[in-house]
Amino acid sequence: MSYCADCGLELAAGTEACEQCGRPVEHEAAPEGGYYRKEGYSKGFLQHDGRTYSVSAFAFAVLALVAFPPLFALAAVALGYMGYRRGDVQLGMMAMAVGVIFGVVGMLLGVLVWNI
Predict the structure, then answer these.
(1) Which of 10, 14, 25, 90 is most deeply buried (CB count within 10 A of its CB)?
(2) Are 61 and 73 in contact (CB under 8 A)?
(3) Which of 7, 103, 99 has the alpha carbon at shortest distance from 53?
């Protein structure tokens, strides 16, 4: 299975040009085992790949420690999941776990601070 390097559309086997944007397809062989990570595709200014979402999830997880833990922890988990779905499997799963843990710790810290 391949994807257009320009617009990211999933291409059928043997396609010579993308049906959406018309870019010629560059055929590449998959490594041993037949699985490879789909690289991010560029669309204008933003780079769309899983690593961006996963790293952003860690930033939101840290924010969950100090302010509005449920909101920022939920954002961290959502961004981690988006990173996971876009190919950054390991870091995405780790970001989701850290988001949940930091959300719980942030709520406990909030309870401790407000009850002192």
Answers:
(1) 25
(2) yes
(3) 99
Tens of pLDDT along 31-75?
Answer: 554 444 445 444 444 445 788 888 899 999 999 998 899 999 999
Q: Which tokens go with 106?
A: 């942030």
* Residue 107 CA from chain centroid, whole number: 25
> What is the 3-class SS of the chain, one letter each residue?
CEECCCCCCEECCCCCECCCCCCECCCCCCCCCCCCCCCCEEECCEEECHHHHHHHHHHHHHHHHHCCHHHHHHHHHHHHHHHHHCCCHHHHHHHHHHHHHHHHHHHHHHHHHHCC
Q: What is the pLDDT of residues 6-39, one digit of tens each?
A: 677 777 777 777 777 777 776 555 555 444 444 5
Report the predicted TM-score, pTM, of the whole model to 2 decimal places.
0.58
